[in-house]
Input
Amino acid sequence: MATTSSPPPAEPAKEAKRPLTPIAGPYGHPFHPILVTVPIGAWVASMGFDLATRVSDEPEVFAKGSYWLIALGLLGAVGAGFFGMLDLLNIPRNTKAFRTGVQHLLLNSAVIALYAVNLVIRNGRLDKAGAVPVALVAVSAVALLLLGASGWLGGKLSYHYGVRVAEEVDQAEGFR
Output
């Protein structure tokens, strides 16, 4: 029975699997994917806190928590973005993987801008009930939707294009 196999990856694909610099994390263990959990977790939690301001007897507590979670997410995004840029710079130009990486970068930049503006505007601004204003919750919701789309592209970079993922020959070692 004949089996079909895909051709071996082109040399440019192998380039994108190796770190640009040891600072980006060792081969097969990039730092960017673990660092993105900080802004994602902080911003998802901030949405929960924003919604809690709408139903809590003490909305100011949740509003303050949401403010600090957004700030924490922005700090985490700077770190994650630095390591993501190191990975992007190692992807050969004029490839689908590079274009996907640029889309990922642009969406993340929009998310960061939305949260930065949101943070500045919400500083001390609550509605009459002490809750986060609906408009700012809506900005956060839009930012989270964009973040989800960007995360999907990040997954495509790793799982479809294999950026910074160990080569199949190295992966096969785990199945022997």
User: Anything to note?
Assistant: Helices lie at 11-15, 32-35, 37-53, 59-88, 96-122, 134-160, 168-171. Residues 87 and 94 are 16 Å apart (CA to CA). The longest helix spans residues 59-88. The chain has a mean pLDDT of 90.
